[in-house]
Amino acid sequence: MTVIANAATSTDRANELIAAMAALPADHPSRPGVRDQVVKAWLPLARRLSSRYANRGEPRDDLCQVAVLGLIQAVDRFDAARGVDFVGFAIPTIVGELKRHFRDKTWSVRVPRRLQELRLAITGANSTLGHTLGRSPTVADIAGHLGISQDDVIEGLEGARAYNSTSLSTPITEGGTELGDTLGGEDAGYDLAELRIALGPALAGLAEREQKIVSLRFYGNLTQQQIAEQIGVSQMHVSRLLAGALTKLRQQLDTDHV
């Protein structure tokens, strides 16, 4: 009984403070001090609402801070002239701030807001239908409950996978292998694959002697002097023929990849 009486007294005092602040003009010198007292008096409400969202992967202290931010917004925006009591205005403001925190801050991978909101709706439907049906609801059950298509439900469930992610530093074996170690790296050969495919037709477009010189230089690994001795011309002539052949190849390959 004593606890209940103390709680009632605290609530009465908090209501008196918010009423006193509402009666003061915005530029009244004592208003900031009264505002601070109002926020302090209503802190238990913010803490109580934040506790409802505990055990969802977010630290309790962080949730409490978000709730207090919502409380401060409610205090600053409260208008007694609208005929709504402060609690009726503060609760949805604080809860809205908490939901916004989960929607905007806790997703590991950014997804459209529509999918974030759809995930929350599906989560709520799962809980409600689980109680009423006495079993895990199917996609069709959720779709019927929310009034959306089954494809939308599946899309929401797929999008929900972005809510949590696994660190690449997560160990996956006793030997110390981490998840990131299993990811493949870039293979430089892929960048050259298309070029190699195009090289054959480009070589076929060269004169027969040019083809032979290119083949001996790059496939036979012969020096220009060795090539000159083999085909019976000077090394300088081989150099000019090779330079001309390579220029033709570059032009042809550039044309093929435009």
TrEMBL record:
Task: Give me the segments passing through the membrane.
Answer: none
Instruction: Identify the CDD domains for this entry.
Output: Sigma70_r4 (cd06171)
Give the RNA polymerase sigma-70 region domain ranges.
39-107, 119-186, 202-251
* Pfam families in alphabetical order: Sigma70_r2, Sigma70_r3, Sigma70_r4
Q: Does the keyword Manganese apply?
A: no
Lineage top rank: taxon: Bacteria
Keyword check for Lipoprotein: no
> Which keywords does the record carry?
DNA-binding, Sigma factor, Transcription, Transcription regulation
Q: What residue stretch is flagged as signal peptide?
A: none
Q: What is this protein called?
A: SigB/SigF/SigG family RNA polymerase sigma factor
Q: Which organism is it from?
A: Actinoplanes sichuanensis
